[in-house]
Amino acid sequence: MKAIIGLTSSLELGREEYGIELADTEAILMAGGLPIMLPHLTDEADIDEIAEHIDGLFLAGGYDIDPTLFGEEPQPQLGVIIPARDAFELALAKKVLALKKPILGVCRGAQILNIAVGGDMYQDITTQVKGDLLQHQQRAPKFHGSHFLDVTEGSLLHRLTRQRRLKVNSRHHQANRHVPAPFIVSGVSSDGIVEAIESTQHQFALGVQWHPENMARAEDSASIGIFSGFIAACREEGEK
């Protein structure tokens, strides 16, 4: 039996239809999982059922996150937000964490994961972070690794990628800021931006600021390692 992976979906403003990235489904399938697209539900009982039935949760990338969810007013540089998606993903992430099931979050998904445990984030790193920044919104193909980051030795990310220095792609203007326990920062770019967070109390709860699903298409070994490890953890969950 393949591991059942709940895959979060996007919702475009003014359009009554959900969407997912092909790269997300391809990466999950490539690693041996079975992706199931999740709509933005509001009923707590329905969200409970999803959390109980999936073997793991993939929090996909997408639009910005409502800053009132972490106690801030919106700044001028804040982009599009989809409140229904924010509410659903936060509720589901909290339930999956409580069940100690595997979670992988990419870009926006890494930020949702951090907010779910009480963390916060920069609404816009270009205006809120002091000093010189790298180009975090690359002007290059999606699969291209555009900058480096340092990986904490012995971390889950280190075990998955087998590398202390990764070259990653980058398409974001927001980023995690305060990361509370039981999560730790396990990847940082040279300009100090948090690039990866992970739990010290869960078998697999990892958020990465980049898009390994795109790099996996280009057969990047570190990206393949992330998805292979995630699906392996989900498969173990499904066999319990």
From TrEMBL:
It comes from Planococcus antarcticus DSM 14505. GO terms for biological process: polyamine catabolic process. GO terms for cellular component: cytosol. This is Gamma-glutamyl-gamma-aminobutyrate hydrolase. CDD domains: GATase1_2. InterPro entries: Class_I_gatase-like, Peptidase_C26, PuuD-like. Signal peptide: none annotated. One of its GO terms (molecular function) is gamma-glutamyl-gamma-aminobutyrate hydrolase activity. It comes from the Bacteria.
